[in-house]
Amino acid sequence: xxxxxxxxESVIVFVIVLFVHAVVWDRYSWCTVALAIQAFxxxxxxxxxxxxxxxxxxFRTAANSGLLPxxxxxxxxxxxxxxxxxxxxxVYFERFGIVVASTGMLIALFLSVIAVGVTKPVPxxxxxxxxxxxxxIIYTMKHSLTVSEVIEVLxxxxxxxxLSMILxxxxxxxxxxxxxLLVLGGISFVLNQLIKRSLNVIEGRGDPIDFFxxxxxxxxxxxxxxxxxxxxxxxxxTWISSMFFHMMTAxxxxxxxxxxxxxLIQRNPLFWLLQFxxxxxxxxxxxxxxxxxxxxxxGVVFYQNAKRSSESKKHQASTITRKYFHFIVVATYVPGLIxxxxxxxxxxxxxxxxxxxxxxIRYFRIKPFGQTLRHxxxxxxxxRDSGPLILTHIYLLLGMSLPVWLFPRSCxxxxxxxxxxxxxxxxxxxxxxxxxxxxxxxxxxxGEIKWPGTKKTFEGTMTAIFAQIIAxxxxxxxxxxxxLNSSYAWILAAVSLVSLLEAxxxxxxxxxxxxxxxxMFMA
Length: 523
Prior knowledge:
This protein is mostly helical. It has helices at residues 4-24, 27-52, 67-88, 91-118, 124-142, 147-170, 177-199, 208-230, 239-265, 269-277, 281-311, 319-339, 341-364, 370-378, 392-405, 427-446, 458-478, 488-504, 509-522. The radius of gyration is 22 Å and the shape is globular. The relative contact order is 0.10.
């Protein structure tokens, strides 16, 4: 029997796909539509596998597979990037968009083939649909990609396969299949780009902040893999292991990551970073302001834990309390987007590295702070943190940062896109910081009419749409670089569809919603 919330979520995703391709219809649109149809069928096979415990790895159990919404993200991002860069006449990034779209389609197809292959009895209709979708995608790739681009797509797919085998085994119940596709697909693409640019450093394109993101992401992932393997043979909670952890972090950071970054940017990374951070007075003011907000967030954590100690050991932070952090993140990102986006870009990369490093300390119980972090963060757990890692705060940071990192600066004249595209860097602020927060707060306090089959309320969704429209109006007032060119109907449609998706999806909304809103704005 079909799950009604999953069915409605799928309809919303199909509508978004059709909206995007109504604007940018080309040969890749046939591939995306075919992929969406087969992902819709395979999604229910994945859901059945998860319910029966037939999946090879352990996935997060409090959600459906999420294959359809996740399968569309990377291909749609590549297609809208291709169109924007084609309009700007930037051939290199136009081809890059095609590679991104092709890679996303093959990764999604790979996950579909796995689900079909392990389902007993073999679903004939789904196999036929998967074969047809695969044939269309491969035929289009054959006539669209050069040999070097095909090799690049296959490299990313190979990295994704190996990363999936390793990380899904080491981190049970941390992801749904859809979330694994997005997270591991993104890491695979970043790793391949870093290897490619390291081998062609003389011909490397982009500025140092792009290399900084690539090295930081790959560095923290490799650091985690190294210590995970190491602590299989050692007790990570002892002082000796903790000292070894800190020593090896310094060795890998200064002996591998720093020289790697030096090779890419051709200057001392530490000196470059210090010069970059304190280059202007505006940046100093922003850094001081962000430090104050970070201290405020820590204050909320300590206050809530003190409250738990005085009330009950079983006390858990309420939904409204968790949304305090959403308000703090909005207050962090908006000034950065208005006054200095490059600084925000680098600061977000640093925060991501720090968050992941602190999660390693918590997970491995590294002294002296590991046990303390476990105690402090356990207060803010929800049903999505069912695995060994606590990822919701990292997903929040990613949801706010990905639109900033993925903004096609090279294809944007004067640093901004025209029409609704001018709001692309604000996608995270609007979808997560404003929409998701307002929907949660108003829905939990005043909502009465529930959407069929969900805990979300009609009042929460409508309030979220209204709040995001007000936020867009405020952005127009305070950010002079934003010029919407009368694309108000498209913005309203984008905000409404993403808010409906928030009401029905069981995936990590902090990660999924900003990406869909960014796709709609870029289209």
